[in-house]
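Project channel, design review

CF: Before we commit to the Tersicoccus phoenicis constructs, I'd like one complete example in the thread so the newer folks can see what an input/output pair looks like. Taking Tetratricopeptide repeat-like domain-containing protein.
RD: sounds good, go ahead.
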Amino acid sequence: MRAADPRSADERSADLYERDGTGPADPLDGGWLSAEDLEVGRRRVRRRLLWFSAPVVLLVLLIAAKLLSLPLFGGQAVDAWERQDANGLGGAADRLGVVNVVEPYKAHLAAGDAQVLRANWESARTEFTRALELVGGGVNDCPVRVNLVLSIEKRGDELTGQGRAADARPLYAEAQRVVGEAPPDCFADPRQAQDSGQQLRQAQDRLQDKQQAPPSSPPSAQPTPPPSGAPSPGTPSPGPGTPSGTPTPAPGTDPRQQELEQRQRDAAQDRAPGGPRDDRSTMDAPPPGAKQW
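CF: and here is what came back for Tetratricopeptide repeat-like domain-containing protein:
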C-alpha cells in the first residue's frame, strides 16, 4: 500500500500542473489526483485566466466608453459653434481629444473652429494643419482642407490690412498650394462638389486675384473739411426755396416736439400724389449662426 503524500492538496496540485503545464501526470509516475486536488487545480487555472484577461477587459471597456462619448462631445461642439461660444467650443475640443484613437482629427478641427471665433487665424491654421495630417485623406479631407485654406487666407488678409502685403503673399501662395493638393473626390464627388469643392474653387480664384493685385498704396490724406455753410461731399445741396444751413430752434422749443412735427410733415408729403418716395433697398441681415468666414 502506497504511503500518503504529506503535502497539502495545493502543493500536490501545483507540482503536477507545473511539470509540463498539461494537467495530471502519468499514473505510473505516482501522479494520481484526488477529486479535491482536481478542484483546487481548476480554481488556480481560473484565477490565472482572470488575472491575464483583466487588462484586456479593462481596455475594451475604455474603448466602449470613448466611443459612446464621441457623439456627446461632438454635439456639444456643434452647439457651441452655433452659439458662437469660443470657450465652450474649446472645452468640447479638449474633451474630444482625450484618448481619441478613433477620429483624432476631430479634436483639432473643433479647436481650430474655436480659434476662428476668436479671430486668431495663426492658431486656427496650426490646428487645421494638424487635423489635415490626421484625417488620412478620403471624403473627410475636403471640409478640413477648406477650413485650413480659409484660415491661411484670413491671416494673409489680416497682414494686408496692416500694410504688410509683402508678408501676406507667401501665405496666399501656401493657401493655393493646399487647394491644389486637394483629392479629386472634393470636386468629383456630388456630395462634396457642391459644398467643399465649390468653396475651394472660389478660394482659388480669390487667392489668384490677391496675388496679382498691386501693393497697397499708403492711405490717402483726409479731405479738408468744407467751409462753414457749404454742403459736405455726398450731401445734396438745398433746392430752390430751401434755406441753407440748419435752422436754429427757437428758445424754449422742445427738440423732440420739432422732430415729431417734421415726421408728420414728411408723412403728409409722402401720401400726396407725386410726393417723394424712398426707393432705397436694405440689405438682408445675415442668418443667425452664420459662419464669420
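RD: helpful, thanks. Residues 25-30, 217-252, 270-292 have pLDDT under 50 and may be disordered.
CF: The two ends are 95 Å apart (CA to CA).
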